């Protein structure tokens, strides 16, 4: 009976409601992707350090006791993760292992 013709809407960024002409739709898509490319160039010009500073939240370093307590609260008899290190090895690995893990966490 009737052919369905969708009306592309770009109200989000431009305030325009509908485009009826095919050329208007193509021009709007062209503008949309040009705007995206401008944003990509802006991001590419930032150094990695600048990007991290924008999202950085200052968090206090954990103490050895906090790390040790968390390790001791890990559940046993569970399958190891992708590193294939069982929880029991970490939990009962002794002071030296816990201390090295603590130092590793401080490096992150």
What's the SSE blueprint?
Elements: H1 11-14, H2 22-45, H3 48-55, H4 64-72, H5 87-91, H6 94-107
| Spans where pLDDT lies below 50 across 5 or more residues | none
* SSE run: HHHHHH
Q: Count every helix, treating DSSP H or I runs of 4 or more residues as helices.
A: 6
What kind of sheet is the major sheet?
none
Overall body shape: elongated
Measured as a percent range, the helix fraction is 55-70%
Class by SSE composition: mainly alpha
Overall mean pLDDT score?
79
Rg (C-alpha, Å): 27 Å
**What is the tally of beta strands?**
0
Compute the separation of the termini in Å: 64 Å
Strand content: under 5%
Number of domains: 2
Give an account of the 3D structure.
By secondary structure, this protein is mostly helical. The protein has two domains: 11-55; 64-107, no CATH class. Helix content is 59%, strand content 0%. The chain has helices at residues 11-14, 22-45, 48-55, 64-72, 87-91, 94-107. The longest helix has 24 residues, at 22-45. The chain is elongated. The mean pLDDT is 79.
Which descriptors would you attach to this protein?
single chain, mainly alpha, 108 residues
Short description:
This protein is mainly alpha-helical and 108 residues long.
């Amino acid at each position: 009976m009737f052919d369905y013709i969708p009306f592309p809407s770009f109200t989000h960024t431009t305030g325009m409601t509908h485009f009826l002409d095919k050329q208007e739709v193509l021009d709007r898509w062209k503008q949309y992707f040009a705007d995206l490319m401008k944003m990509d160039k802006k991001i590419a010009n930032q150094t990695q350090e600048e990007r991290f500073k924008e999202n950085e939240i200052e968090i206090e370093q954990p103490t050895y006791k906090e790390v040790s307590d968390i390790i001791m609260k890990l559940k046993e008899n569970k399958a190891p993760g992708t590193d294939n290190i069982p929880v029991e090895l970490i939990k009962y690995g002794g002071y030296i292992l816990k201390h090295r893990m603590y130092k590793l966490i401080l490096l992150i």
